[in-house]
Fold each of these.
Amino acid sequence: MQTHKRTLRRPRGQMSKINRLLPFTTAPLYHALQLMATGDAARFHMPGHKGEPVFTTYADLFAIDFTETYGTGNLYLGEGPIRDAEVAAACYFEAGDCFFLTGGSTQGVLAMLATAAGAGGSVLLDRGCHKSVCTACALLDLTPYFFSSELIEPFAVPGALDIAEAERQLIAHPEIRAVMLTSPTYYGVRRDIPAFADLCAAYGKKLLVDAAHGAHFPAVGLPTPIAEGADLAVLSIHKTLPCLGQGAALLMGDRIDRRGLRENTALFGTSSPSYPILSSIDLARAYVEGPGHIAYLRAATACEELRRFVDARTRFSALGTGDFPDLDPCRLTVSTAGTDMTGQTLSDTLWSEFGVACEMADERNAVFILTCSDTGSSLRRLRRALRKISRRAQKGEVPHPAAPFPPAERVLSVRQAHFSHHGRVPVETAAGMVCARPVTPYPPGIPLLWPGEKITDSHIELLQERWYNKVDDIYVVITD
């Protein structure tokens, strides 16, 4: 796959402007907070612990947990060492600019859609998008149109997105302002971002990418979505890099209004962002830009070795480049299809008998994330567990190709349905009713039904029989 190379405007506040007191550091925010923590100051400001080790477990975090005060900078004003850290991240991720987030990729998804589509706009969405996109549609009163992907068998996971279908939607609905897709997916499938970038450029639309699971890509030699031509992309730094939970980064290209985007990150973010989270984003970037690069290449090698091991030494199968050419090199998807086990059974047995916790499981698969932090003993434990469990698995019929979740008729806007008078009903009684909340087995957090869509017998059949985790109840619109 070819990558698009753009000439991007350099972000304001170049690396040369990083605090001159810290010429030795590659993590400017973290080290600025360290210097403040070791300084002689009486702190009569938030947070209430004042940097003191009130609870010894959090002593190191409390020490660097500040608020907007002298020397810390302000996230939403884009100043101080926070800004220096964002500039360093923008350079590393090959983006026109980068804004740190403490509300995870959810905050970034909301900010992207508000910036690119605006209130009351229309968007074209990968049907496999995260539930946070549904939240954005409810809050911003966006009209969603969808396109989807074929399933990769026997894994029954979404593969390549249908670009021809996306183009038909853009022609049929010229009011669409932005296209949003997910890459990589929860299962490690990478989408053809350059092709969609060309499509969006041809029709004058913005391309948004939920790359929550791809923050480690530069560390393994893969481009970020911005480098491939996207206009906006969000990365969950905490998902695959050594960063505190909720740490994320929003990347932008050169066709986006910087000030408006920053304002929208503030609109959907807390007014008291966590400095430990912010500094951990900074540290994670500095690490993968330095020694962590080698550690992630090792993780990718270990993942490929595990794929070969699963295929050669177990009755299970691993999603590999023979099944789909473009995969996350650090994501292991193991399928139980063709045995008498389900993915959930494999996951439960791994945990209960071997103390191995996977990221998620569905009817046919268990998914594992590999990072710099996986030890040799952990990897050996996973291999041993998969081999032993496989010996118990009996050969079963290879399942028939999975039918995609049936399309649904929209009868209310997402916003109307979400804020309607609603109630919860058993799934088996919901046929003919209108969905009021996204039906989202979690993980992976992908809505199967959206608010405002009419529920049919076909939807209920698949929900009851095989779709992800069990769904017992559905929130529906209640009419007088």
Note: Residues 12-24 have pLDDT under 50 and may be disordered.
Amino acid sequence: MKRDIETLIADRKRLLGPNVSTFYEDPVHVVKGEGVWLWDSEGRKYLDCYNNVPVVGHCNPRVVEAICRQAGTLNTHTRYLHDGILDYVEKLTGTMDPSLDTAVLTCTGSEANDIALRMAEGMTGKRGIIATDATYHGNTALVSQMSQSNKPSVGFGLGQYFRFAEAPDSYRNPDPDGTKFADAVAEQIAEHEKSGTGFAALVICPYFLNEGFPDNADGWLKPVAEVVRKAGGLLICDEVQSGFGRTGTHMWAHQKMGVVPDVMVLGKPMGNGHPIAGLVTRGEILATFRKGYRYFNTFGGNPVSCAAAMAVLEEIEDKKLVENSRVVGLHARARLEALKDKYDVIGDVRGSGLIFGAEMVLDRESKEPASDFTDRVINAMRHRGVIHSKLGRHKNTLKIRPPLPFSVENADLLFDTLDEVLAQTLLQP
């Protein structure tokens, strides 16, 4: 059934309920994807500068073929033996520190983060969790308590187990070596211990994407990792957004930040859009979890999902997409710096690899966020056939994280269009 936009929106509310979010003032009705491109129902083509889920490109032929081949052979759960899950976990853990040698596969990052928190309790016997104050880690009843950027208005009264440290902000509150952040976490650890809850884990995205991906130096997380380990807690790195070569320097952002987590959570891009997620950890942590919790996931690690995920790793490796991320990211950063020289509304430029953006301000001296202006820019770009979004505490940082096959030519189209949009938007009242 083909619906016009107005009918789509009305039926969406009727059938899915209110407050189901959409992007842009005029939502896009996408009907086709290929590589770094999307097409809407009217045949218009859009450059996708936002979606990290199709990490190796929309409808990637290798991934599509792997899904179809396995779906045509067998799909079942992991209480039956199958090679696919073992081959995948072996290849996945082969990209990490040797200590990260076991995995649990799930369907969503929310599930994986939920398990990670239970692992922390199982290992420490304590329940106190620390997260940053401007982040998002998922939407289970437990995990949603950490998500200050999308905080639930009702819940199960779990808030006493969670404390928050101020997210790093390299633009407004520089912390060159990470010691300020480590001190802030240490304060919250002390509060957990004082309250009797005790400290179990620190949960962070190692590149702090939702917080606006501040420009932290390589190795920046070492001080806080030392604080966490000294207190007997676990370091949980949520790499749902930052992993799979996104930063261009390493396969995983925690490697760039100089730490080895106790637990690493994976999600969104893992199956290029096929629903697979999971976590990787040390064998003794997983063994403790298995003894303490009876956990089974009907769809987690099924043969079709594992085939899709294996194809993603193979594509990243064969097409040298981490290196492509590095090269294109350097070019993108240079183009953004040139735009900053041209437009005072750009207060700061940051990013690494294929996660980059610019923070918009009303005044460079006061650094007052230009949040409404950022919205106008994003919507204007959408109407010119380029889609991206925003993030950060003030929702004034352009969020640009395209699929990894994104090219220098694609970046030039993005920034040529952004140049035009900035010029036009600044002229509007």
Note: DSSP finds twelve helices and 16 strands in the chain.
Amino acid sequence: MQGLNEIDVVIVGAGLAGLTAAHELKKRDVSFIILEARSRAGGRVYSTMSEENLPIDLGAQWIGPGQKRMMRLAEEYKLQLTPTYQKGKTLFHLRGKQKKTKGNVPGLSAFSILDIMILKKKIDKLSKQIPINEPWTSELAKQLDKMTLEEFIQVHSHSNSALAYYRLIIEELLCAKLYEVSALDFFWCIKSAGSIDDLLAAESFWFKDGAGKLIDKLIEPLTKFVYFDHPVQRIIYEEKKAVVYAGNQSWTTSEVIITIPPNFITNIHFDPPLPSDRVQLSERAGLPSVTKFIFIYDRPFWRELGLNGTVYSDQPPVNLTIDSSPEDEKRGILTVLIGSKSARDLASMKAEARHDLVKKALIRFFGKEADSPLRVFEKDWTADMWTRGGYGTHFPTGVISHFGPSLIEPVGPIHWAGTETAFEWRMYMEGAVQSGERVVSEVLNRLK
């Protein structure tokens, strides 16, 4: 018989990975609790509502056709998906020139287009050779982990336009500069998704009522098991038992599932200390800087200009815009993503100055009507005290090949989940769900 504060499993973090793990344990009548530092569930998924009752996604938002778990959840909970608006042309601001084009490749010279296609085939071919469950084991992976993504693309592209294109597209995907990320890290992401084209299709749909509605559905049957405002401070563990301390309470448990971002592992005191490889990995695991803006207009006026609202720009501060307007077009909504140094520069400004600077970019893209939004929402994820960046950890050179196994290897009763640990769609919501499923299999094997 268990005591009052004895439980089979303690889950740390109520994001998608933690909630998925909780649902899987609940199906199997395994007792658990979830300890969450925030006063809300969702982690890097965060939605709010406008005064007009429009859903505003300030965190993770989109899903793609290959993300079977997210598609299944949308169907299970009867959550309607809205296709990302793609009629009209995409704008590319590349190397000081503005180009309008159909699709995701700008109008360039035949040589540059050929260079882009050849490099894409090479990246896809190499990514298929990466062992998905343990990328640190192959010789190819070890070589890729010695160079930054910037170095790889410089070596394998033969035109400045191709280099600029890949820098633009990939930095938007990573929310980080190419020189900050190991080539292996990116190749692992591609392998987990399937191909570069699959990654580029990852923003095909969004939840009509906001991604936060999925979190609401997931948390609803779990509320009595969740302790909000309970950041974990200390874990004392041995081979088959652990004591987890949060707030002024403690729980004795057989297994611990930790789903928080790797950079936050260092905030927990472990006794005995974690293995040195796991510690060093966590210390090198900062998230990229990212800020998300939502601009609401009286209508999606850019559609009248023959534009689909998608902009890729290599000119600061805006990296990417996407049309998130409701299908009835009663309002026009532009989602604006700003990453890396641009996000850090904006963070040092006052709100009015930030908004004015971003609006100037939108005016450059869409004309004077972009100067008059009805409302602006923003979320600086780097300033979020329980995330400190977004949306996923991308490792610099040498980390995955040297310390990668510790990302997923259990330490006694302690198990690791979260999108960074995923084998499918790593760094996406789909990856978080997959990691929650995987970690429960590990736990159940130990509880037998």
Note: The chain has a mean pLDDT of 96.
